[in-house]
Input
Amino acid sequence: MILDKFSLKGKVAIVTGSNTGLGQGICRAYVEAGAKVAGVSRRPSDETAAMLGDNFYNVIADLGSTQVIPRVIDETVAEFGRVDILVNNAGIIKRQDSIDFSEENWDTVMNVNLKTVFFLIQAVGKQFIKQHSGGKIINIASMLSYQGGIRVPSYTASKSAIRGITMTLANEWAKYGVNVNGIAPGYMATNNTQALRQDEERSADILARIPAGRWGTPEDIEGAAVFLASAASDYVNGFTIAVDGGWLGR
Ligand code: NAP
Output
């Protein structure tokens, strides 16, 4: 049955940034689809844990450094026995004119959005080898994986690179039954866009350009996230799917 192919029953997922926003929505969708989820967050994911009970385990880790990576894998395997799915969702953005953009704003964003993401994928790849299994890697990208943006050079660099390494890793790992894909959200109503939504003029400009005529929500991304984590996407490799209310097509 086709719907069975979307089931995540028996699967174990690691989802970073599990305390809020898109990451919290993905954790909830994966548990609804049958998976156990190890959510990684630097602050406790208490709200997510209260929603998901025993199907959720919280790894507390600051992804600004690669040093936490072995512990993320070890705690997940100790709790749930294996890893089948990794969603790299944690991400930050720093806004500053490029002419004044600081090295700190460059490094902070690149470390969380790109460096830790790559080395976490590498560690999960080694876990797949240990398990003699394939697996699913899903990288949360952005419209700025496709466009330039303004006043966000490190964010654009990181998200463009995420789309690039999604293709590189798919090229190397598709033959091992590992699917590496991305999701590029459009403008979603989360903490990440709170400042933009509070700026009435910017918010009106943005809404006028979205064909769907509304901000996206964490629920909007759940279908693509479950699809890319499931057997239904076994022949999808290296692609970053936009979930953007039509923004990129405009
Ligand atoms: P959000 O509400 O700001 O959530 C970001 C998540 O990343 C939070 O859980 C945050 O934890 C976590 N995080 C940030 N730095 C971390 C670190 N050093 N260690 C561990 N966790 C860290 O934003 P969101 O909108 O849900 O964003 C999720 C992803 O979607 C990000 O990669 C973002 O770039 C991408 N995205 C969002 C939009 C949008 O319109 N919202 C559009 C395109 C792409 P804390 O709560 O502790 O900071």
Remarks:
- The chain has a mean pLDDT of 97.
- Residues 17, 19-23, 41-43, 62-64, 89-92, 112, 140, 142, 185, 187-188, 190-193 surround NAP (CB under 6 Å).
